Amino acid sequence: MSKLKLAVIVGSTRDGRFAEKPAEWIADLARTQGDFSVEVLDLKDYPMGFYGDPATSETETETAANWKRKIREFDAYVFTAAEYNHAPTAVLKNAIDHGEWIKKPAGFVGYGGVGGARAVEQLRQIAVEMQMASVKTGVHILWPDYLPVAKGETSLSDLAHLNEAGETMLDQLAWWGKALRAARQSEEQSSLAKAS
Ligand SMILES: Cc1cc2nc3c(=O)[nH]c(=O)nc-3n(C[C@H](O)[C@H](O)[C@H](O)COP(=O)(O)O)c2cc1C
Questions:
Q1: Which of 43, 96, 135, 186 is the most exposed place for a label (fewest CB within 10 A)?
Q2: Residue with CA closest to ligand 1 atom 24
Q3: Whose CA is nearest to atom 27 of ligand 1?
Q4: What is the enclosing helix (H) or strand (E) of 176?
Q5: Rg of the chain's alpha carbons, rounded to an integer?
Q6: Which one-letter DSSP state was computed for residue 37?
């Protein structure tokens, strides 16, 4: 069986962002896990206009179309979830609005004062509306872990409890990823058979 294509989406574009650390860490963990071929997608590389904004330039519209096309390639997603004012970043919400995620699983790596828990819970609600299947386990990097990692005193891969949470989340993502890929393929074959 071919590997599941997993996109790790870097959910903040702030200069000096923390987001790159959890993105790289979970991408490495997913490569080790074995079920996934992994690509990190950085929203800095996809400067899109706000969804539906008439002021959007032609370049931004093209970028949004490229983003949507790119997103369709994957079988599963992990989002890094920063928390600003108890909510996900606007740039990530906008990227989700622009994408197509139907019948694919999603996991979240949150960080901040309470491990990004409030942002992740909002993202789970958005995921349902976008027809993603959110897996149960999330990774939450709480402040006492966030600070030493942000200061470069330690790295996420050194923290056993986070590795354990990440592995559990990835195992769930692999299970749902395989199940949903098989279901999508079977659905596609049925509609081809009906059409012929
Ligand atoms: C305007 C502002 C609001 C913030 N609100 C929250 C918050 O509600 N909860 C939280 O845990 N952290 C909050 N933070 C801290 C961010 O989570 C922290 O800066 C984090 O590194 C942001 O992610 P990023 O560095 O990947 O952009 C806030 C920071 C700023 C500047």
A1: 186
A2: 17
A3: 17
A4: helix 160-195
A5: 17
A6: E
Contacts of 127 by beta carbon, 8 Å cutoff, 6+ apart: 96, 101, 106, 133, 134
Task: State both tokens at 39.
Answer: 């690509």
Which of 134, 171, 140, 170 is CA-nearest to residue 156? 140
Q: Whose CA is nearest to atom 25 of ligand 1?
A: 17
Claim: this prediction has a pTM higher than 0.90? yes
Provide the number of structural domains found in the chain: 1
Task: Assess whether the C-beta atom of 83 lies below 6 angstroms from ligand 1.
Answer: yes
CATH number of the domain that residue 85 is part of: 3.40.50.360
pLDDT at 38 over 90: yes
Confidence of residue 86 (pLDDT cuts 50, 70, 90): very high
Residue 182, C-beta contacts closer than 8 angstroms, at least 6 positions apart: none
Domain hosting 113: range is 4-195
The rounded Å distance from CA 58 to ligand 1 centre is 32
